[in-house]
Design brief:
Elements lengths: L2 H7 L28 H18 L3 H5 L5 H11 L18 H11 L3 H14 L1 H6 L2 H13 L4 E4 L15 E4 L5 E12 L6 E8 L3 E8 L5 E3 L13 E12 L3 E2 L5 H37 L1 E2 L2 E2 L4 H38 L5 H10 L1 H26 L9 H9 L9 H17 L5 H13 L14 H25 L7 H26 L7 H30 L2 H11 L10 H15 L5
Parallel strand pairs: 1-4, 2-4
Antiparallel strand pairs: 2-3, 3-7, 4-5, 5-8, 6-7, 9-10
Bound molecules: flavin-adenine dinucleotide.
């Protein structure tokens, strides 16, 4: 059975992007790590063994950029099939779904320099060709990219244009005879540039039509500058490019002239989802390092893992990871199943199917990117703290993990840009009635004005108080959005702090909803049920505090005087603090981590 058929047979439900805010928690089955197929688990194990056998033991040489080593490791990964997962079978690939590639990324991020290099090759480097290439382009390049004979890179950023990518200044002029374009300009911070053979380069045709080109390394006038010296992921190659009268055949235009943004943004959306799951993988590694160290190191006559404050850190890390896994695999499943359904209608990789599937889940992909990268930063920082002074020393792996973590909040769209994107996308879809935002906001507003919180019909009898809390969080999110939209109307675009606060709320709502749905789907008497229930309770209570704080900030910005007082009185109908012994629940989560020596599931 193909991976597409397997995905279509899964019984989870594909809802429209953003639906998590409107659906009842646990109402629809979601894709979870428990739903992985044997084949997916097998590929993950192969990637894990490769990381442990071939990559981690050479980490110092990788970090020191030993000449030829990264390329050799990528080729070795190619021999194992790890570079061909996304490539169609007819071009030498394995044609797996995105979930499978995310699994591999999740496993490899313990060696972030390598994971970033592999990710740039298989993701932003190769996917533009898979989805937007012509048959001739695919035939020429994909079989070589699938094995690692050729390595790919993606060149969008320039010295003057980072987040504002469409402001790129690199120019492409069509030659008089129409056979080729002449490219001039510069790019910077291009991953894999030191050894890549094929570059997806974005340039403005005639200075105004943003377009992607396939540029081979040995094209005259194409120069790769020196390696950057970076804060982290030191083993990955990051170089500038200078293009001086580079003649690129017209046949190497990727997609259509003037439609480069379709490629840039959709590929970045997939990249974001991968980065998010990869970050959760690295957080699991940080947890393992922390738990392992805490079990060995003794102070005051006891190992560190017997101290309450250390166990609290381990517990908090595990809670964040649990929710991250839940929202990460849910998002991967949504993209995959939607794409599989579209593809089943017209088989073969199709740029419209791809664009539709990926664009649908822009909000979820951005949430995953922001959530994953920030969960990793917290987890790696706390893991270093557990190591004390030793964690600050380069000979301990956690020192590298901390440095490597930082980049994730910057590339694939900074977290600020992703926050603006996810909140803005929800509002735009609401205004276009693509999601039932207006109706839902009005229903919440009306119920609260009438003196009652909207009622919830719980999905089953498990974790009912948690279901209530998630329901209230969603109502609060809708209430804050309604007040913000009423106050600023279309000018809300200029209210970045309000949008940022709404984005934070959506991130927590998606995390809480996903953790809850995952736990409700687990067999109540299964081995993971108790751990999952505790992690879900803790995540939801933490999210609840954050959500209501952010909502109150939005209300204070949007309203004043009597209106604000009335709004706070209405919000109080939703703001329900539960008297839970958080320390005791967290202690149970921590105990599971300590017993497993890391991530227990
Ligand atoms: C190690 C590394 C590898 C990379 N690899 C690649 C690669 O392979 N290919 C490639 O094309 N690029 C690559 N990049 C570039 C990366 O994608 C950019 O760094 C990123 O998009 C941010 O752009 P910038 O650094 O110019 O920051 P800027 O855009 O200048 O942003 C600076 C700060 O301002 C904020 N900001 C910017 N605009 C706004 C706004 N409208 N509202 C609010 N805040 C805003 C940002 O969030 C950020 O905090 C890489 C970068 C690094 C560091």
């Amino acid at each position: 059975m193909s991976s597409r058929e397997a995905m279509l047979q899964k019984d989870f439900v594909v809802r429209e992007g953003g639906s998590f805010l409107f659906d009842r928690a646990g109402e629809h089955r979601i894709f979870t790590p428990e739903d992985l197929t044997d084949e997916q688990r097998h590929i993950r194990n192969a990637a894990r063994q490769f990381a442990d056998r071939s990559v981690l033991p050479r980490i110092d040489a990788i970090e020191g950029k030993e000449p030829g080593l990264m390329r050799a490791l990528l080729e070795e990964a190619g021999e194992l099939g790890l570079l061909m997962l996304d490539i169609p079978e007819k071009y030498g690939g394995l044609e797996q779904d995105k979930t499978t590639t995310m699994l591999v990324t999740e496993t490899l991020t313990r060696c972030a320099s390598f994971a970033v290099s592999l990710g740039a090759h298989v993701g932003i480097g190769s996917l533009p060709l898979v989805y937007f290439g012509t048959v001739a382009q695919k035939e020429r390049y994909l079989p070589r990219l699938a094995t690692g004979e050729w390595i790919a890179a993606y060149a969008l950023t320039e010295p003057g244009s980072g987040s504002d990518a469409l402001a790129a200044k690199t120019r492409a002029e069509l030659a008089d005879d129409g056979t080729h374009y002449v490219l001039n300009g510069s790019k910077q911070w291009i991953t894999n540039a030191g050894f890549a053979d094929l570059f997806v380069v974005f340039a403005q045709v005639a200075g105004e039509h943003f377009t992607a080109f396939l540029v081979e390394r040995d094209t005259p006038g194409f120069e790769v500058g020196p390696e950057e010296h970076k804060h982290g992921i030191k083993g990955s190659s990051t170089c500038p490019l200078v293009l001086t009268d580079v003649a690129v055949p017209a046949a190497n235009v990727l997609g259509e002239v003037g439609k480069g943004h379709r490629i840039a943004f959709n590929i970045l959306n997939v990249g974001r989802a991968r980065l998010g799951t990869g970050s959760i993988g690295a957080a699991k590694y940080a947890l393992r390092l922390a738990a392992g160290y805490a079990a060995e190191r003794a102070q005051f006559g006891r190992t560190l893992d017997q101290f309450g404050l250390i166990r609290a850190k381990l517990g908090d890390m595990a809670v964040r990871i649990f929710a991250g896994d839940a929202l990460g695999y849910r998002t991967a499943g949504l993209i995959d199943k939607k794409y599989a359904a579209l593809e089943a209608l017209s088989p073969g990789p199709d740029d419209d199917d791809f664009q539709n599937a990926v664009e649908e889940f822009t909000i979820e992909a951005s949430i995953l990117k922001v959530y994953g990268s920030e969960a990793l930063d917290t987890a790696s920082d706390e893991a270093l703290q557990i190591h004390g002074g030793y964690g600050y020393m380069a000979e301990y792996a956690i020192e590298r993990v901390c440095r490597d973590a930082r980049i994730n909040r910057i590339f694939e769209g900074t977290n600020e840009i992703n926050r603006l994107l996810l909140a803005g996308t929800l509002l735009k879809r609401g205004m276009k009635q693509r999601v039932p935002l207006m109706k839902a906001m009005q229903a919440v507003g009306k119920a609260l004005a009438g003196g009652a919180a909207p009622a919830l019909d719980p999905a089953g009898d498990r974790l009912v108080p948690e279901q209530e809390q998630v329901h209230r969080m969603k109502c609060a999110a809708l209430y804050a959005t309604q007040q913000a939209v009423s106050r600023w109307m279309l000018q809300i675009e200029d209210q970045q702090e309000v949008l940022g606060a709404l984005a934070d709320v959506l991130i927590d709502v998606y995390g809480a909803d996903s953790a809850l749905a995952r736990t409700l789907q687990l067999p109540a008497d299964g081995p993971a049920a108790a751990f999952a229930a505790d992690a879900t309770t803790l995540f939801i209570e933490g999210a609840r505090d954050r959500v209501f704080t952010r909502v109150k900030q939005v209300l204070c910005a949007a309203l004043s005087g009597d209106k604000r007082d009335r709004a706070f009185a209405e919000l109080a109908l939703l703001d329900h603090w539960r008297p839970i012994d958080v320390f005791a629940v967290r202690e149970r989560v921590a105990a599971a981590v300590v017993a497993a020596g890391g991530w227990p599931l």
